[in-house]
């Protein structure tokens, strides 16, 4: 009898790692499945069992443990962190002059992948009907570079760094052009690319780039280039160390998750996680209000 | 039920003829496993719910079919509403705990340098 109880406890709380596969991965603690257990959702019980433990918090990455939550919800947070936290990224590229070797569309694609440092919470989504961007939803950037021969280079040098001026176009050459009242609102904030040293294109004398870019708010689901957290591995459950294969069972605790969040630099990682949780809440609220409005019809 | 025309419906309800209030399929637009799986877990935790599941009709379309069958004592929309509210409350608690821990961590980090 005691052995059966222990078995039940194990199924409920542990995920067993067999030699060739993982057993017990599905959640089974729903009301009615186990006699003698009350598995109804209870906010108080959840609050008592729930724990967060911050292991590490750096400028661009953080690591924390989340204990007491079901894999469904932890996975929802992970998916939102990867794809649904809003970011600002270059969306429309107006190419006035491009005489470089890099094709227009390739150049536009590369520009779109550059992370832009601007707090997306201060901007609105652009209405798809509006053609022109306005100051509340668009950031305008300009890139104007012309490559020329260096008159002071020595005759027989072959190093392009010496022979040419402006032959490498870096992301630091992107200049912010404030529109409307952005110059006042963002006077202290530095709006521009997160990293200065992203190589965009290479030029030779006579080639130039004259480009204006519009940067809008988007989420990774619709536009793959606005992903905010580069790497987010989670659900590496805590391990109980055991070495001898056949004598000992290897199991992992079911509801203990280790989150590692690495940010592209636009928002600090703790803000990213907070935003992700709020995105999930706002999804719920959206359907709640939809239900309420349809009930009143 | 939902306004057609300019506003795209985000939530529709489909019910078989002759069925009672306890069995409803909700069609949720612009949603995927993120909300589907977490909401399914919350609604399954309700003892009045007999069956709850969701399916993505086609991976190219961003909509899910979410079915709830209750034991008959409460209507399915009530179970749906309860699940959404529970999920929202759980997220609020997670958010509060997370922010409290992060602030604690930042304070203990700040102390050695001060």
Automatic annotation (TrEMBL), chain A:
A GO biological-process term: DNA-templated transcription
A GO molecular function held by the record: DNA binding
Compartment annotation: Nucleus
Stretches assigned to the DNA-directed RNA polymerase RpoA/D/Rpb3-type domain: 61-290
Signal peptide: none
Pfam families: RNA_pol_A_bac, RNA_pol_L
InterPro entries: DNA-dir_RNA_pol_30-40kDasu_CS (IPR001514), DNA-dir_RNA_pol_insert (IPR011262), DNA-dir_RNA_pol_RpoA/D/Rpb3 (IPR011263), RBP11-like (IPR036603), RNAP_Rpo3/Rpb3/RPAC1 (IPR022842), RNAPI/III_AC40 (IPR033901), RNApol_insert_sf (IPR036643), Rpo3/RPB3_RNA_Pol_subunit (IPR050518)
Protein name: DNA-directed RNA polymerases I and III subunit RPAC1
Organism: Periophthalmus magnuspinnatus
